[in-house]
Design goal:
- The chain is α+β, with helices and mostly antiparallel strands.
- Helices cover 17% and strands 40% of the residues.
- The strands form five sheets. Strands 6, 8, 11, 12, 13, 14, 15 and 20 form an eight-stranded antiparallel sheet that branches. The protein has a five-stranded antiparallel sheet with strand order 7-19-18-17-16, with no helix packed on it.
- A hairpin with a 6-residue loop joins β17 (250-255) and β18 (262-265).
- The N and C termini lie far apart (129 Å).
């Protein structure tokens, strides 16, 4: 019986001794906190976080701020894995959302300035009173031409507006025979009147209005030239000579801003304008052309 009692006592002593030895091996709270703090500082997921560690009776408390939710979970996992830890109270919080706009500042940048639009090209307006000199492409006469007949011409000299060419030399033009009366039909007079009706610029044909150029031959070769719609004809006879009758003069009377009328006095006393004669018409109304692409 005594032997059994000694065995029980010895077992009890061993048990108590083992428990005391086990307790003495468990890390104290200060060591636990320092180890966790060190691991948080070296771990890539948590080293940028501001976390404080404290421990009491093996229960660890984490406080402070972490940058992301992943960092928060990693900090808690490091604390739980530390030997001697009996529990973890994670009181950390994510960094304030108020700090986020600093990273998002580019979204609040002032809007880019709207591109400056180039001024749109303006139409070209050739004012009334502007002269257009053309060379007729065919012979015209009071005897052979017909009232209402169309004649073709080519612009002889460029027309400029504001220092820029509006109608280039060589542009096609057309006109109309307003009056054509052979000598003897009306009191022995021969009369020819012309007007320019269109000009083609950059492939577009534009209608125009001009004053009428008129030339009349009366009696025995007396000739007058007038421009209806503005200004009396006057000036000097210019041009050369052509074989018609006895060397009749071919020329033009320069009207007061009216233009040139080439006329030939022949033995038949008719008004004749040879092909390639220069005639200057005056616009009676403004001519508006589309903007130039230049």
């Amino acid at each position: 019986m005594q032997r059994i009692q000694r065995i029980v006592i010895a077992f009890s002593l061993c048990t108590v001794l083992g428990l005391s030895l086990g307790c003495s091996k468990r890390p104290n709270d200060e060591t636990i906190a320092k180890e966790i703090q060190s691991k948080l500082a070296s771990d890539p997921a948590t080293r940028d976080s501001d976390v404080a560690v404290s421990s009491k009776d093996g229960k660890v408390t984490l406080t402070g701020k972490v940058s992301t939710a992943d960092s928060q979970q990693r900090a808690e996992q490091i604390a739980r894995d530390e030997p001697g830890v009996t529990g973890v109270d994670d009181q950390t919080s994510l960094q304030s959302a108020a700090m986020a706009p600093a990273a998002e500042a580019p979204a609040a940048r002032a809007p880019a300035a709207a591109p400056v639009e180039k001024p749109k090209p303006q139409p070209i307006v050739i004012p009334a009173g502007t002269s257009i000199t053309v060379k007729v492409g065919q012979a015209l006469s009071s005897k052979d031409s017909q009232e209402g007949q169309t004649f073709l011409a080519t612009v002889a000299t460029p027309v400029s507006v504001g220092g820029k060419t509006a109608i280039p030399a060589g542009a096609s033009a057309s006109g109309r025979v307003v009056t054509a009366k052979a000598k003897g039909k009306i009191k022995g007079e021969g009369e020819l009147a012309l007007a320019l009706t269109s000009v083609t610029v950059r492939g577009a044909t534009e209608s125009i209005e001009t004053q009428v150029l008129s030339s009349t031959v009366k009696g025995k070769g007396k000739r007058t030239a007038v421009t209806t719609g503005g200004g009396a004809a006057g000036g000097a006879l210019i041009g050369g000579l052509a074989g018609g009758g006895k060397g009749a003069g071919i020329g033009a009377l320069v009207g007061a801003g009216a233009g040139l009328v080439g006329g030939a006095l022949t033995g038949n006393k008719q008004v004749e304008i040879p092909a390639e004669s220069a005639l200057t018409f005056t616009l009676s109304a403004p001519l508006t052309l589309p903007p130039s692409s230049q």
